[in-house]
Design brief:
Keywords: Signal
Order of helices and strands: HH
Largest sheet: none
Shape: rod-shaped
C-alpha cells in the first residue's frame, strides 16, 4: 500500500513538472515509457484492490468478533440478572423465615415465663403448707427472715 502511495505521488509530481525523468543510462526508471507506466498502474490497481480486500476482511472479522463479544456480554448480563433475582427471592424468604422464627421464639419465651410463674406459685404454696405444719423449718426453706418474696409475674411491668 505504501508503494502504491509513493508511486501515485511520483506520477503526480512528474505530471506537474516538478520532477523530470532521469536518463535511463543513469540506472533510473524511465517514467515516460508507456509499458513501465502500465505495469506501475497495474501494480497500483492490484495494491488498491488487495488493500481494499484486506480492509474489508479485517472489518468483517472485527465485526464478527464484536458480535461474539456482545453475545457473550449479553449472556453474562442475563445470568447475573437471574442470580440477582434469585438472591432477592432468597433474601425475601429469609426475612419471612426470620420473622416467623422470631414470632415463634417470642411465643415460646412467653410460654416459658408463664410456666416459671406457675411453678414459682406452686413452690410458694408448698412452702406455705410446710411452714404451716412445721414453722421451725423456715430457715431450711431458704428464707432466713421468715418472709418469702412475692412471686414474679412476667406480665407485670
Amino acid at each position: 500500500m505504501q508503494a502504491a502511495l509513493t508511486l501515485v505521488t511520483l506520477l503526480s509530481l512528474y505530471k506537474l513538472g516538478t520532477i523530470q525523468a532521469a536518463p535511463v543510462s543513469s540506472g533510473a526508471v524511465d517514467l515516460t515509457d508507456p509499458q513501465i507506466l502500465r505495469e506501475d498502474i497495474d501494480d497500483l490497481r492490484w495494491e488498491m484492490e488487495n488493500g481494499y480486500q484486506r480492509l474489508l476482511w479485517s472489518s468483517r472479522t472485527r465485526s464478527d468478533n464484536m458480535q461474539t463479544e456482545l453475545a457473550t456480554l449479553d449472556n453474562t448480563v442475563r445470568t447475573l440478572q437471574g442470580r440477582i433475582s434469585d438472591l432477592e427471592d432468597w433474601r425475601a424468604q429469609t426475612e419471612t423465615l426470620m420473622k416467623n422464627v422470631n414470632q415463634e421464639l417470642r411465643e415460646q419465651i412467653l410460654e416459658a415465663h408463664g410456666k416459671i410463674y406457675t411453678l414459682n406459685n406452686h413452690a410458694n404454696l408448698l412452702d406455705d403448707v410446710v411452714l404451716q405444719h412445721h414453722p421451725e423449718s423456715n430457715i431450711d426453706l431458704g428464707y432466713p427472715t421468715g418472709k418469702r418474696n412475692a412471686p414474679h409475674d412476667p406480665a407485670a411491668p
